[in-house]
From TrEMBL:
<dbReference type="Pfam" id="PF00646">
    <property type="entry name" value="F-box"/>
</dbReference>
<feature type="domain" description="F-box">
    <location>
        <begin position="1"/>
        <end position="46"/>
    </location>
</feature>
<dbReference type="InterPro" id="IPR036047">
    <property type="entry name" value="F-box-like_dom_sf"/>
</dbReference>
<protein>
    <recommendedName>
        <fullName>F-box domain-containing protein</fullName>
    </recommendedName>
</protein>
<dbReference type="InterPro" id="IPR025886">
    <property type="entry name" value="PP2-like"/>
</dbReference>
<dbReference type="InterPro" id="IPR001810">
    <property type="entry name" value="F-box_dom"/>
</dbReference>
<dbReference type="Pfam" id="PF14299">
    <property type="entry name" value="PP2"/>
</dbReference>
Length: 201
């Protein structure tokens, strides 16, 4: 028996065990495969298991849009890949990695601990049209710089290696980072104790 002769629910189950990319490729096989590969049964498996909870934590306007999109799981998946949504207090956003379906998070400037961040002499809070967060921190002048961020590891995708990126934009005629190296460290805080990787590892 050829795979195309299997019942549609069997084909859907097989495709759901692959990847979003493979599902898109399999939709090119035939109209029948396209119907199955684009079905909610398949794309529900690619979405994070707690996506409904995370969507419910988004801001009101986003929630309304996403609930209406939830009727088409593939459209919702692709939307979350391209348009991370602000959740909780709006200082963190949730999205989906297109190839894997793993959860991605971004922490906005207001969600970070910035030394001197509330001192107008050192920092200015402003907004940028292209930024997903309502405010960004603009550095005016400091003699030293320390920024800390944290995230609850329980909301991350299990059995997944994450990378942390510090995203910033240099203003014109500002070259501090060109003159001094930036040190970046990551660690795990458990019960108020910060655990760091050993130096050199």
């Amino acid at each position: 028996m050829e795979i195309s002769e299997l019942p549609e629910e069997c084909i859907a189950h097989i495709i759901s065990l692959t990847s979003p990319r493979d599902a898109c490729r399999s939709s090119l096989v035939s109209p029948r495969f396209r119907s199955v590969a684009d079905s909610d049964v398949v794309w529900e498996k690619f979405l994070p298991s707690d996506y409904k909870d995370l969507i419910s934590r988004s801001v009101a306007a986003e929630t309304t849009v996403l609930i209406s999109m939830a009727k088409n799981k593939k459209a919702l998946y692709l939307h979350l890949c391209e348009n991370p949504i602000p959740i909780d207090d709006g200082n963190i956003s949730f999205g989906v990695d297109r190839p894997s379906g793993k959860k991605c998070f971004r922490i906005g400037a207001r969600g970070l601990s910035i030394v001197g961040g509330d001192t107008p002499y050192y920092w200015r809070w402003t907004s940028l049209p292209q930024n997903k967060f309502s405010e960004v921190a603009e550095l005016i002048v400091v003699c030293w710089l320390e920024i800390k961020g944290k995230i609850d590891t329980n909301i991350l995708s299990p059995a997944t290696t994450y990378a942390a990126y510090f995203v910033f934009r240099l203003a014109e005629k500002r070259s501090w980072f060109n003159q001094l190296p930036v040190q970046f460290r990551s660690g795990l805080i458990v019960g108020g104790i910060e655990l760091r990787p050993k130096a050199g590892r």
